[in-house]
Structure formats: C-alpha cells, structure tokens
Write a structure and sequence with these properties.
By secondary structure, the protein is an alpha+beta fold. Helix content is about 20%, strand content about 30%. It has a 6-stranded antiparallel β-barrel. Strands 1-2 form a two-stranded antiparallel ribbon.
C-alpha cells in the first residue's frame, strides 16, 4: 500500500480514517495521531502511528525508514510534536541509538500488524535478527513536554496556518 514510500489512494483513505478515529480516542489506545507542522508550509499535518511500549517507556517507530514525511517534519520542528488520542499531549521526541532499537522494533511489530510488510524481520524472530536492520528504522522515545502557559503555540513554531490551543496543564492542550 506504500509504493516508493508514498501511500496509495487506498492507504491514504485508510490513514485519513485512522486519523479521525484515533484522534477521537476510539480504541485501540496504541493508535495515535502525530501532529507536526509541515516543514515547508507550516500547516499542521496529521499522521496515524502506533505507540510501542517497552520497559516503561513509550516509543514511535518510522516503519518507512528515515525518509518518512513525519520524521522529516518532526526533525524540522525540533522534535516537538503533539500526540492525539482523544486528548492532545505536547511531547518531545528523542531518537534512540541503533544499538538499543532491536527489542523496541520487535515489540513494535507485536502491536503494528500494518508495519510487518515494511520491516523485513518476522515479529517472532530472535533479537539478533533485528540488529542488522535497526539502523534503517528510526525509533523515537516519547518524552513529556510541559506546556508553557505563556506560549499559545504548542509547536513553538511561528506559522499562520497553525490553530492555537490553550494550555490545560502538564503537556496537555485544548482548542
């Protein structure tokens, strides 16, 4: 459904549907929407992703590799994004070094059946099989980012296309 790293029409339709459902908080809870300002337009873009948990931490994985648009946009935004699953949570992403990625990739494949076609290792394979491909699939640790009541912009990026949200508390925003 992703030819040349771009979604087909059907995949785009499914992504839009997932953004609507996950954004509204419809289960599964692991499905989230990542909102990030576009690196060229500044408009808020939404991408459906699956959160993997491992050893008490939450992670996002780029199943399409380093060239995934959401990764490029998050990089341009200084790794500050908003996660949405019924409520908004402003977070900061930290890239995990490739040596630490294999167990997280394995855990991710347990919860993201759609990603299994993109990552060339079976989810039941031993961790040693994940080591050679770990550098090809970026993994990001999700860190809470306290919201700043003095800032009306959760992305901390100036842009005429962003709708402002107000701070409700630690890392949570509302429209």
């Amino acid at each position: 459904m992703y030819q040349g790293g771009r979604p087909t029409r059907f995949a785009s339709f499914l992504n839009r549907l997932t953004v609507i459902l996950a954004g509204a908080g419809v289960p599964p809870k692991r499905q989230v929407v990542v909102e990030v300002p576009g690196r060229r337009t500044g408009r808020r873009l939404s991408f459906p992703l699956v959160v993997a948990d491992y050893e008490g931490e939450r992670y996002l994985v780029a199943m399409l590799g380093n060239d995934a648009n959401w990764v490029k946009n998050a990089r341009a935004a200084g790794w500050r994004v908003v996660l949405r699953h019924g409520r908004r949570e402003a977070v900061r992403l930290e890239e995990v070094v490739p040596d630490e990625r294999p167990p997280i990739l394995k855990r991710y494949l347990e919860f993201a059946p759609g990603a299994r076609a993109h990552i060339p290792v079976d989810r039941r394979a031993p961790l040693t099989e994940f080591e050679p491909i770990a550098g090809d699939y970026p993994v990001f640790r999700i860190r809470s980012r306290p919201c700043d009541p003095t800032s009306r912009d959760p992305f901390a990026v100036a842009g005429p296309h962003l709708r402002l949200m107000s701070c409700r508390g630690r890392g949570t925003y509302e429209r």
